[in-house]
Amino acid sequence: MQQTTSYPIGTPGQPWGDVERAQWRARQVRQRSHADDVAMRVEASRDRFDIETYGLLDAGGRNYPLLAIRNRDWNPALPIGVVTGGVHGYETSGIEGALEFFEQSAGNYAGRLNLLVVPCVSPWGYEHVQRWNIDAIDPNRSFRAGSPARESAALVALLAPLRGSVLVHVDLHETTDTDESEFRPALAARDGVAFEPGGIPDGFYLVDDSERPQPAFQQAVIAAVERVTHIAPADANSQMIGSPVVAHGVIEYPVETLGLCAGITGARYVTTTEVYPDSPRTTPVECNAAQVASIVAALDYALAHR
């Protein structure tokens, strides 16, 4: 794995200002189409689901609809399940997994669960294969009131009426080699701090909420995903990405305190998935299937343990 020790933008030790952010933005290249890859698939399900445009993102001269999918006949008496993908637009299996879930499996929960699926929180990031949004802000540290990340603020507003009523929330992510070769060096440069090389876990893992852990729930998801793909082992320090491994394939973060997407619903059962698509032991199809398996396992466990 390539380990970058410097970044081509900014002065070491000095946080970026407007000039550096503009330089970074000028380096970003549109590589794929949210309209073709995501919006078209969402629209194709309109005969079976209710489609909501909960915001319109103006970024880089393009207008991106922020799309959410709900089941028909929303029943206030039923529990609510939320699935979010594409908080980091470059994490492809998160978007694909959310799309495949509602295309293939969402109908299985009719009459048992109200479902809200947001397949691509950050469409500009999706098109530019980027972790940050166009303003060089990480949406997944920005899910709070008054967020400077417009994508995050829009999702917070969408989910605010449901807060406290959500039973289960699954947020779909990836950890990739580019985290270490590009995105962490960029973060260090942006913030004017030294880049400290780390490691990338080889395999799937989960992030639980350290402030309200649900270990049995997390292990039920791990067990389901393990039938699809391999689970990441702990490193020599019994950690993954600098955090202690608390159980097979599980680490913990204080998700609401950190402004992470998994913290905004207040759900009893929350998890953040992390797929490793760069492993020689997996394929894109398998990565997508792991995301779908994690959603299904999470919903099934939550319904069985209400």
From TrEMBL:
Q: CDD domains this protein is in? A: M14_REP34-like
- InterPro entries (alphabetical): DUF2817, Peptidase_M14
Record domain Peptidase M14: where: 30-306
PROSITE patterns on file: PEPTIDASE_M14
Domain of life, per UniProt, equals Bacteria
SUPFAM superfamilies reported in the protein's UniProt record? Zn-dependent exopeptidases (SSF53187)
Record protein name field: Peptidase M14 domain-containing protein
